[in-house]
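dumping this here so i dont lose it
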């Protein structure tokens, strides 16, 4: 009886309960930023910015999108936006946009003579000598 083979078994180790090292780093940086805001801006602006940063920070830290943590997807998103794209194909002009010209050109007909060339033994020997070299 076939059973599913586990895939994507690479898992980060948990430090404290449900938090791994990357999540802990994000939370510490977020806390430091909120403390810095507390000492630098007015109290009403602080509460507005803190609520906004806390919501965004917690969503980035603990949120998942298609079972992949958001903090892992942010790096891929920035790389996709800012790095140059390399396309492996070359787009060709579509047939509808090709320039159309209906000038009638004279066609040249090539007449093949019915006589075929025959090679004598002397010419064949020279050809084989050239090809053997």
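and the seq i came up w/
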């Amino acid at each position: 009886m076939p059973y599913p083979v586990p895939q994507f078994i690479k898992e980060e180790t948990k430090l404290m309960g449900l938090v791994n090292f990357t999540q802990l780093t994000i939370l510490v940086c977020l806390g430091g930023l909120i403390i810095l805001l507390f000492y630098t801006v007015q109290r009403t602006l602080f509460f507005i910015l803190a609520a906004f940063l806390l919501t965004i920070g917690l969503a980035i830290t603990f949120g998942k999108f298609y079972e992949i943590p958001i903090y892992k997807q942010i790096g891929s998103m920035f790389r996709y936006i800012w790095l140059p794209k390399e396309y492996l194909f070359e787009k060709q002009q579509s047939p509808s946009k090709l320039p159309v010209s209906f000038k009638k050109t004279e066609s040249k007909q090539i007449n093949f003579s019915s006589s075929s060339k025959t090679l004598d033994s002397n010419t064949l020997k020279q050809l084989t000598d050239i090809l053997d070299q």
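The chain has a mean pLDDT of 82.
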